[in-house]
Amino acid sequence: QVRVLESGGSSVQAGGSLKLSCVVSGYISGTCGMGWYRQAPGKEMESVSRISTDGSTTYADPVKGRFTISQDNGRNTLWLQMSSLKTEDTAVYYCAACVRGANYWGQGTQVTVSS
């Protein structure tokens, strides 16, 4: 069984920073990438950033230059460093881990950015 647990969400003022963490545990042999997603109130889930097994990263346009995704060498911990936060970054942030072709999701962590 694969378990995904996010942490680090909080309330911050615009312009501030937060670092989200995601720990993947269980039988995680055969990982095929990890990523961060978010869902704002009344909006659909959107991809924020992903990191592939070769270390390559992708970012959604709204967060480019402000967010940085990183992963530990064991590939069971994922981080999302968020800087210059904007009110439109307010959302529940989810971590997803691809393991042996299946996606596993965490429960999400709330990020609230106030003006």
Describe the structure.
- With 115 residues, this protein is mainly β.
- 0% of the residues lie in helices and 57% in strands.
- The protein has no helices and eleven strands.
- The protein has strands at 2-7, 11-13, 18-26, 31-39, 46-51, 57-59, 67-71, 77-82, 91-99, 102-105, 109-114.
- Strands 2, 4, 5, 6, 9, 10 and 11 form a seven-stranded mixed beta sheet that branches.
- Strand 7 and strand 8 form a beta hairpin.
- 30% of the residues are buried.
- The mean pLDDT is 95.
List the helices and strands and how they pair.
Elements: E1 2-7, E2 11-13, E3 18-26, E4 31-39, E5 46-51, E6 57-59, E7 67-71, E8 77-82, E9 91-99, E10 102-105, E11 109-114
Parallel strand pairs: 2-11
Antiparallel strand pairs: 1-3, 3-8, 4-5, 4-9, 5-6, 7-8, 9-10, 9-11
Strand content: over 45%
Intertermini distance: 41 Å
- Largest sheet properties: 7 strands, mixed
What is the overall shape?
A: globular
Q: How many E strands?
A: 11
Helix and strand succession?
EEEEEEEEEEE
Oligomer: single chain
Uncertain parts: none
Query: Rg to the nearest angstrom?
Result: 13 Å
Helical content stands at under 10%
Q: Structural class of the secondary elements?
A: mainly beta
Number of helical stretches of at least 4 residues? 0
How confident is the prediction overall: mean pLDDT? 95
Short description:
The chain is mainly beta and 115 residues long.
Which short descriptors sum up this protein?
7-stranded mixed beta sheet, globular, 0% helix, mainly beta
